[in-house]
Amino acid sequence: MINADFPKQITAPVLSLTWCAIATTVMVAGFPLSSAAQVRLRPGATTPASGSLGRSVESYKLGGGDRILIEVLEVPDLTRGYEVLSDGSINLPLIGLISIRGLSLVEATKVIRNAYRRVLKDPVVTVSLVAARPLNVGVIGEVTRPGNFVITLTSGPGVTPSVQYPTVTQALRLAEGVTGVADIRNIRVRRPQTNGPDRVLNVNLWKFLEEGDISQDIILQDRDTIVIPTVATFNQAEARRFATANFSPPPEKPRSISIVGQVTRPGAYVVIGGNTTSDLSREGFPTVIRAIQLAGGITSEADIRQIQVRRITRRGEQIIPVNLWQFLESGDASQDTILQQGDTIIVPKATLVNPAEAGVLANTNFAPPGINIFVVGEVTTSLDPLRLPANATLNQALVSRGFFGYGNTRAKRKSVELVRINQDGTATKRTIEVDLTQGINEEVNPQLRNNDMIIVSRSGLVNFLDRINNVVAPVGPATGVLNFLSILRSLFR
Asked: Degrees (nearest 5) of the Cα angle 299, 301, 302?
């Protein structure tokens, strides 16, 4: 029976039977009438777009803040827009408050239609989503900035655009990207359920990158939590591969790191992509080599085969081995590890320096461009610092500028003294027997370090003559021969 308060609803029995027949036919065919109504848009209204499994928004759950349009056929007084209250309810005329929180549009249509059956005979109800509320999504694990994010849904292009629902990769970008030790094969999305435990969805973004499987980039719902686990075994090549994806931190993002060991200037640095010596270049990634460049390059005793990157992960510290000799020898670019915030680089000291390798290392871009050496004592040229290549040896310094040439008759040619300032602030001094025919040899022709000082002493004969000159100079005619002889005896005591 038709309610007398709504004479305009369905006045003809034939029309009522017709709509019942249509509704029955649609339901039998497996397509709820309300489902068809969801895709019908009024001006300004939007509707979820259909998609493949994992990216479909047909299961969008209504909640506080959503704006919906409820249409009741033939009853214009009941056709109006509603904003879902914070508790998930709406206030319907003649019905009062009903809760649609956590319901899809199909489920909400059924609930509202059943509510109107109290006052209407066979009501035909359509529920459309006009504007979706912002979604609250959590991102935790191996991301740069974990936390909870509010994502405002926007409309896509077109005359009657649909809502653009956020996906996993969009949420990762809000969290400033995954870290270098993220396990992107085993990402999990925890989705709360109205009744029962959370539903867990598995996401494999490596499959998305390698095969273009866009279904892996699933559409998110309100209160989803994305969990990025830590990879069990770090893979240099794979980490470099997904570092180019748009859900990784951008190369130009500054990263604070520390570098210690056999580098010219150990300490803390901020590394960015591009050429670290030019503010104009931002190409490339912030890597181990770029950090070494900022630290002034490696020392002559650096063991580039055993470099370590110590990285703090969500599961504790992880040690990443770096072999830059393999990078030089075979072009294995994956050895130049991409750095992330908080990394510590350790460049150890080599137990044995290979002279042939030392020459190769001196010509790399992570070796110092040059070193300053001071040669003092019996030298014939300026005492200004001598600029030499990074792999320069003692003999190179001695013959440069004629410091130790045969024309310098005052120099002691058998040995020199090498003074070196150590990294701990102490100084060492040792005497080295000179052999200009020797190649790199730690005993007689060692490689030099920045700010080393070489002391060239006077030869024995010159030293003797200088002492005589210093003594004889004040002797005059009045001194007497006896006084002069006594002075000579004092020289040999």
From this structure: 70
